[in-house]
Design goal:
Elements: H1 5-19, E1 32-37, H2 49-67, E2 71-73, E3 77-78, H3 83-92, H4 96-113, E4 124-125, H5 129-144, E5 148-158, E6 163-165, H6 167-175, E7 180-190, H7 196-201, H8 210-220, E8 222-232, E9 238-243, E10 254-257, H9 273-285, H10 288-292, E11 301-308, E12 315-320, E13 332-335, H11 341-350, H12 391-404, E14 408-414, E15 419-420, E16 433-436, E17 441-443, H13 471-474, E18 475-478, E19 481-485, H14 493-496, H15 499-502, H16 515-521, E20 526-530, H17 536-550, E21 563-566, E22 569-570, H18 587-594, H19 596-605, E23 613-614, H20 619-634, H21 652-670, H22 674-690, H23 696-706, H24 711-720, E24 744-751, E25 754-762, H25 767-774, H26 778-784, E26 789-795, E27 799-804
Helix pairs in contact: 1-24, 2-19, 3-4, 18-19, 19-20, 20-22, 21-22, 21-23, 22-23, 23-24
The chain binds one RNA strand of 87 nucleotides through helix 8, strand 9, strand 13, helix 11 and strand 23.
Length: 805
RNA sequence: GCCAAAGUGGCGGAACUGGUAGACGCGCUGGACUCAAAAUCCAGUGGGUGCAAACUCGUGUGGGUUCGAGUCCCACCUUUGGUACCA
């Protein structure tokens, strides 16, 4: 009988559903394991083979952990707010809810056809009022804690989308062909910077890829430095700059302030005023990207004013340049051209003096020297000398001196900015805030605050969201007076910041999560998803988690214990899959043709999970052949009945191979090295066939090892050989340590490190015996002829090497 | 520019703490079965020389350490990911 994957897969998917095989039991008397996928945005274009890679990996882990005796939580849901459905609504008038529902239906069908063992009774959807009620609830807590505030900020405004973009989203949208400009707008902002220190520190306690941790550290960008007050020659005010190199103060030859700096115009002397005004006007017109993008020539203008270097007493000209960012530090810097690349370029551009204050291996007039591994020179005045000191000491001494003179103080700065949290869109969680006529703000008392139905999804003419057009929703009055509702909605990140918690207690109407359940299930043991979320999603989620920790809602400091980034699957042309390239392999297409088990196995067999690798449809045939070979272990003849398995004892060789396979597959599955686990199972199957072995123990062992990878065919065969319960509850086999080692080993004989022959010997043979045997090997004798042995290296159980002359 | 990771057959990839490079799969070649094909099975498959036994060269490039290097060290080249004036 031939294997009919289509019939079998449907049969077992129905069986699992009917028997609720993967429904997670609450308060089970077992250790827990929470394995989570990054839940998808249900787009209209459906799932392709790339999307299934991570889901397959997490499903194998979930099934494997279950068979190892864990109580496993493995849920799935939908990050369903977002722009594509809204853009579609603007074009067609179809409500985003309708589009979203349809897409979810199709996504879910594909995931179920893959045989993933999700507990679908816990399915969540970020657009469900029962869910976003709690997203809004968290927002109100942030507001009460002073972590959500309104601010007039320069935002990244996308004209086509009529919305604000987070800094992090800008590049992505520009790549998609949108234009983004800077524009001031009153926005909701979340004070993520208040958690910067903890967001860095707690990275030490999670098991994440080192590069992701490093990316987050860089993104937060902590630096230790000193703020120095410079006296101005003809002004009473002082000019504050931030520097991480106070040790180079003696080499500061000019100051630069940002065009947006409040002193920019004030410092302009009469002859310079026109030029300064013009420069500031020009800078305003530039977008953030034009200002910060690419390596362009430095521009700037002299204000005409001078500051005094507190270390030398020398006058320093104050310049304005747009390479200095108003949003970082104090918006003003001291320039040390000898030891900073940007300052050096600027000094060369405008002929400003360059003074060496760190011992440099070359002339600093020719090239900047910006390393810290040298000592200070030319750095002394009557009270202070840094000469001869390496960086840490020079920094310390200068910082202390500045503090003692009351012209400086230590300061820690972060690159991380507060998170602009409002979007001028319809399809998002409404921000539950009421604005009263007297300017006060109050929180909505009844959550969830629902989205009203609208007729058109276009943003309003004022740049506000479509919600501003719905008067009956927008306006109201209560005991505090008349109010206007907040028309901004939350960004798509909001719903995904805490969804992993809701899976634990999805139905709870009273609380975000039941504390006992939270304590049992948190944190997420394994979180699998794409590397594109390395900073944004993962940083935002960690921030919210810490806020919830401070609120006492959760008991862990970090949400995700272990993180794993699966590598992208490229198209057959070795390029990133995209509609425009036409190289997308749709999931449904391969599922129909090869079946879920083959697709699952092939995706994992392609290469290491973390690696980027191209899809090759030919390769999947090999997997189908492997599954057919497994099938023939049970259905070997033409007859439709399963071959009766024997209970005769296995040969010593096969018994050892079986135990080695158990060990290897178990360890590799545990470590997400699925490609080599599959390879090992292939070897075992090949050997069983070669030996014509139909031993029950061997076949049953193989089926259990394979079940997490290929759940349908293994269920079918498990039933065929006489089991009445699902293979998904069969316990993972144990190996016997004494059987994973070979009793007879092949020993290599090398001469000068080159292989010249082999012989076999019992394991743990003494060195003398190995040497004796090695000298008997014919090819070795030939090579040793006429030569003298200088040295013999004998590695027990491995090899004998002769160094000869 | 800077940071990180990686370069192994025609292809995807194996190789534990330095110890028989190329497991497993794809592809290809030959054979069995067949009227023929598909499917399946068997054998072979890194390059070069050779009738053969065998020899020789081989893990991006060039050096080094070692009895022995894909694996360790130094320099360089290439690719991918991240980042971009953060003072």
């Amino acid at each position: 009988m031939k294997y009919d994957f289509s019939k079998t897969e449907k049969k077992w998917q129905a069986y699992w559903q009917q028997h609720e095989s993967f429904k997670t039991a609450e308060n089970a008397d077992k250790p827990k394991y929470y394995v989570l996928d990054m839940f998808p945005y249900p787009s209209g274009s459906g799932l392709h083979v790339g999307h299934l890679e991570g889901y397959t990996a997490s499903d194998i882990t979930a099934r494997y952990k279950r068979s190892c005796g864990f109580n496993v939580l493995h849920p799935m849901g939908w990050d369903a707010f977002g722009l594509p459905a809204e853009q579609f609504a603007i074009k067609t008038g179809t409500h985003p809810r309708i589009t979203t529902e349809q897409n979810i239906k199709s996504f879910k069908e594909t995931l179920q056809a893959m045989g993933f063992s999700y507990d679908w009774t816990r399915e969540i959807n970020t657009t469900d009022p029962g869910y976003f009620k709690w997203t809004q609830w968290i927002f109100l807590r942030l507001y009460e804690m002073g972590l959500a505030y309104m601010s007039e900020v320069d935002v990244n405004w996308c004209e086509e989308l009529k919305t604000v973009l987070a800094n992090e989203e800008v590049e992505e949208k520009i790549a998609d062909g949108y234009t983004v400009i800077r524009r001031p707008l009153r926005q909701w902002v979340l004070k993520i910077t208040a958690y910067a220190e903890r967001l860095i520190a707690d990275l030490d306690e999670v098991n994440w890829p080192e590069n992701v941790k490093q990316m987050q550290r860089n993104w937060i960008g902590r630096s230790e430095g000193v703020e120095i007050d410079f006296e101005l020659r003809c002004h009473k005010t002082r000019l504050k700059v931030y520097t991480t190199r106070p040790d180079t103060l003696f080499g500061a030859t000019y100051l630069v302030i940002s065009p947006e700096h409040q002193l920019a115009e004030k410092l302009a002397t009469a002859p310079q005023l026109l030029a300064v005004k013009e420069y500031i006007r020009q800078a305003k017109l530039k977008t953030e990207l034009e200002r910060t993008g690419l390596q362009k020539e430095k521009t700037g203008v002299f204000t005409g004013s001078y500051a005094i270097n507190p270390a030398t007493g020398e006058p320093l000209p104050v310049w304005i340049s747009d390479f200095v960012l108003i949003s970082y530090g104090t918006g003003a810097i001291m320039s040390v051209p000898a030891h900073d690349q940007r300052d050096w370029e600027f000094a060369k551009q405008y002929n400003l003096p360059i003074i060496e204050v760190i011992k440099s291996p070359h002339d600093v007039e020719e090239k900047v020297f910006d390393e810290k591994n040298s000592i200070s020179v030319n750095s002394s005045n009557s009270e202070l000398s840094l000469d001869g000191l390496p960086f840490p000491e020079a920094f310390e001494r200068m910082a202390k001196w500045l503090e003692s003179k009351n012209v400086g103080s230590r300061k820690v700065n972060y690159k991380l900015r507060d998170w602009i949290f409002s979007r001028q869109r319809y399809w998002g969680e409404p921000i539950p805030i009421k604005h009263y006529e007297d300017g006060t703000l109050r929180t909505e008392t009844m959550l969830p605050l629902m989205l009203p139905e609208v007729e058109a999804y276009h943003p309003s003419s004022t740049g506000e969201s479509p919600l501003a057009n719905i008067a009956e929703w927008l306006l109201g009055n209560d005991e505090h007076g008349t109010f206007r509702r907040e028309t901004n909605t939350m960004p798509q990140w909001a719903g995904s910041c805490w969804y992993y918690l809701r899976f634990i207690d999805p139905e709870n109407r009273e609380k975000l999560i039941d504390p006992a359940k939270e304590e049992y299930w948190m944190n997420v043991d394994l979180y699998i998803g794409g590397a594109e979320h390395a900073v944004l999603h993962l940083l935002y989620a960690r921030f919210w988690h810490k806020v919830l920790f401070d609120l006492g809602v959760v008991t862990t400091r970090e949400p995700f214990k272990k993180l794993f980034n699966q590598g992208m699957i490229l198209g057959e042309d070795n390029e990133k899959m995209s509609k425009s390239r036409g190289n997308v392999i749709p999931a449904d297409h391969v599922l129909e043709r090869y079946g879920a088990d083959a697709v699952r196995l092939y995706e994992m067999f392609l290469g290491p999970l973390e690696q980027v690798k191209p899809w090759n449809t030919n390769g999947i045939e090999g997997i189908s052949r492997f599954l057919a070979k497994v099938w023939r272990l049970v259905y070997s003849g033409d007859e439709d009945a399963a071959t009766s398995l024997t209970c005769e004892s296995l040969s010593d060789e096969l018994l050892r191979k079986m135990h080695k396979t158990i060990k290897k597959v178990g360890e590799d599955t545990e470590n997400l090295k699925f490609n080599t686990a599959i390879s090992e199972m292939m070897v075992f199957v090949n050997e069983l066939h070669k030996a014509g072995c139909r031993n029950r123990e061997a076949v049953e062992t193989l089926l259990i090892l394979l079940a997490p990878y290929a759940p349908h065919i293994t269920e079918e065969l498990w039933e065929a050989i006489g089991h009445s319960s699902s293979i998904s509850i069969a316990p993972f086999p144990l190996f016997l340590p004494e059987l994973v080692e070979d009793s007879i080993l092949t020993i290599a004989v090398q001469i000068n490190g080159k292989l010249r022959g082999t012989f076999t010997a019992p394991a743990k043979s003494p060195k003398e015996l190995l040497l004796e045997e090695a000298l008997k090997v014919e090819s070795v004798i030939k090579f040793l002829e006429g030569k003298s042995i200088i040295r013999e290296i004998i590695v027990p159980d491995k090899l004998v090497n002769f160094a000869v002359k």
